[in-house]
Amino acid sequence: MLYTGTDWNFSTLRICYDAIERIAQEELRLETYPNRIEVITSEQMLDVYTSHGMPLSYPHWSAGKRFVSHENAYKRGLMGLAYEVVINSSPCISYLMEENSATMQALVIAHAAFGHNHFFRNNRLFREWTDPTQILDYLEFARGYISRCEERHGVRAVERILDAAHALQGQGVNRHSGIKRLDLRQEQERDRERRAYEAQTYNDLWRTVPKRDADESVGGANGNDPTLGLPEENILYFLEKNAPKLEPWEREVIRIVRLTAQYFYPQPQLKLMNEGCATWVHDYIMRRLHEKGEIDDASMLEAIHSTTNVITQRGFDEGGGPSFNPYALGFAMMSDIARICTTPTEEDRAWFPNFAGNNDAVGTLHHAWAEYRDESFVQQFLSPKVIRDFRLFRLTDDLAQPYLLVDSIHNESGYREIRRSVASSYDPGVLSEEIEIVGADLQGDRMLKLEHRTRPGHLLQPSDARLTLAHLAELWGYGVTLKEVDNQTGRELGSYMAA
Question: Where is each SpoVR-like C-terminal domain found (predicted)?
Fold first, then answer.
């Protein structure tokens, strides 16, 4: 037995870790970053919540606000704390709650230190968009830089830039594939060299050169400078490079927010798969420990009870909300893939001829974990059995009709339509707004022009749009306009302006 009862010490954790590692490597063939496991208190876990799961972050008032909110909710019993938090870094840091029982410590080690860790290291989006070996160093640099700016320029001045940049960080990422993976250390060094070069080559005589008249400005009739590379989807990047009034330190602060947002960009697109992978891994490992006699029946029942609570999908009328529990659907799909590989039905063979009955569940899951994101994973692997188990059907809500229409049920065409609809609910193109900078008259009135391409019925919330546009105008230093345009017809659906 690895342990008996609920008590544990660090020797127990070491023994459990070694046993879990053997199964993870020998049976599941998991490839992970080096692990670092830390045991923390509930208050320290609240601290981790405030910094989005990272062990360190730059100072900002919003962190304190989140801490107080979470602390009050926790003390009043309105929210619980996670059993663990794991960080996509190398070494991969897993925080374990000290209140966990021995079984829960073993379970979360399997879940976080091996399930999530393997997914972080092997999924294509994480490999292309993040560099876990450098994120902690960059966050340390960011915290130090922000602190020095506060000492030199004042807390209020720094907060003004951070508040505006935070409001725009959702539009501060490059979304399209093919971009070079961010090398945070190289970015940091390149920026230092660029600023040192600017300081060395600065000549005050350029200040005396007559300014170009507005009617002599470069660009076409719209006044755009062709060197700006418009349209530009990454608003923070454009501001960092081109905002007329920003000081060098302000551009660096925007850069910090932008690179941090870019690092976290893949995670919402992989929530379903990431949690499904980790839950399936910990369930497999705990069952194997029980089969090998390394944990007793009581520990196995505790693990089953915890897993069952996590993967419960509540109905819309039971507080389940409008979306799927990622643990529930993710675990169900991972388990279903393993079943199709080993004991397929005729239906499975018809729907998944490429891997049904191949007797390589681990290899098939490895391929899925590495090559897909949530949207494409659902589109490829959601089976009729899982659709039936979750009792899914599709409603069409036509505003022109006084009723709802059930247009997809449990038949051949219905399964495909339901699968397509579920997949589209994870499409980042649907979940995020397509807003681009389309014009910037740097030689004239300095007006910055943005365009939101959408469709009728999917417009921005007016109050949020005005507040966010005000933050954008704060960073740009001049007037900003935003037009909402029908993506199909080009017709203008609405407009906003901030000065």
Answer: 434-486
Segment holding 58, helix H or strand E: none
Question: What are phi and psi for residue 453, nearest 5 degrees?
Answer: -90, 120
Q: Which helix (H) or strand (E) holds 36?
A: strand 35-40
Q: CB-hemisphere CA count at 13 Å for 424?
A: 8
- Residue 110 is classified by DSSP as I
Which among 373, 263, 371 is positioned nearest to 326, based on CA atoms? 373
Count of positions (residues) in the chain = 499
CB 444 within 8 A of CB 212: no
**H or E element at residue 405:** strand 404-408
Cα separation, 410 vs 347, in Å, equals: 13
pTM: 0.87
> Residue 2 in contact with residue 22, Cβ under 8 Å?
no
| pLDDT (tens place) for every residue of the chain, 499 residues total | 999 999 999 999 999 999 999 999 999 999 999 999 999 888 888 888 777 677 778 888 888 888 788 778 777 776 666 777 888 998 999 999 999 999 999 999 999 999 999 999 999 999 988 888 888 888 888 999 999 999 999 999 999 999 999 999 988 888 775 445 556 666 667 667 766 766 676 666 656 666 554 444 444 445 566 668 788 999 999 999 999 999 999 999 999 999 988 888 889 999 999 999 999 999 999 999 999 999 999 999 999 999 999 999 988 777 766 789 999 999 999 999 999 999 999 999 999 999 999 999 999 999 999 999 999 999 999 999 999 999 999 988 887 888 899 999 999 999 999 999 999 999 887 777 889 999 988 888 889 999 998 877 788 999 999 999 999 999 999 999 999 998 888 888 899 999 8
Rounded to 5 degrees, φ, ψ at 483 are -110, 135
Angle at 198 between CA 194 and CA 199, to 5 degrees: 120
How many CB atoms are closer than 10 A to CB 148?
A: 12
Confirm if 461 and 241 have CB atoms less than 8 A apart: no
Q: Measuring CA to CA, which residue among 96, 121, 92, 90 is closest to residue 9?
A: 96
Sheet bearing 480-486, strands edge to edge? 435-440, 448-454, 480-486, 492-498
SS3 of residue 406 by DSSP: strand
- The Cα–Cα gap between 434 and 235 comes to 11
| SS3 label, residue 346 | helix
